[in-house]
Amino acid sequence: MSINDRCNLVLNQSSVVALKVSTRCNHTMAIKCNIICVLVIVMWTGHGMCAVLSTDRDVSEQTILELADKSNKTFLKLIGLAIQNLRCDFDNCNNWSEWTSDILYKGQFGVKTRSRDCWYNSCDKTGEKVVENDSEIFEGRCPTSYNITDGKFCLAYHPTKMNHSAAHQLCAKDGGHIINVDTKERYDLAQKYAPGANIHIQGERRVAGGPFFDDAGNHPEERSFFKWGANEPSNNTNELYLMLSSSGLCDIYGNNVYYVLCEK
Question: Least C-beta-crowded within 10 Å: which of 96, 155, 180, 241?
């Protein structure tokens, strides 16, 4: 018996089992049921499936459904439809929004929430939309030595001047970091929180005149609200860090000493 003959025999036998399994799965749209359908069919068909689907093309539900039409094999159509349903089950919602919650002190507990849009009657995210909500209990992370500002920021202002390395170590001691003015709100807050004081902010570059990077690898200069102070940047050798003053930002030496605003 040739390989194709053996394949056809396996395919014909598996069609009966596929139909029996599909009868059970059609009563529910549960993801687990779709997975079971596919696994049972694949296990039953064994090497027969390889003979039909051995191709360099990416195998999708559409590929399998096309093969089902050409070969007139019921089990292939069932697999294609099962994978299509499985994709819809996973893919019919947008990504979750960011968690929203107030900042709390350590030892305090609150509820954080998030949401997403879902289309349960459509694979292409059209038609009637449902907003799905999710919530979790969380424990606060703000140290009691910090202050909570606007319910959003956990900050500690240190009115002792120190260089950039010492500022970094001070903030890291409590699991925090030098404030990163990555939003206009943080930019304004930093100036308001330390009025008239020059403070260290995130921003470091490898060579004078080169781009700055914050701890996340982003470029502070690319932010629309970024504002250099008068006659800045001076781009002198070894001016590799950033400082925020009341008039804007300045490039500074690593051994320059300024006040520190930590965030956690």
Answer: 96
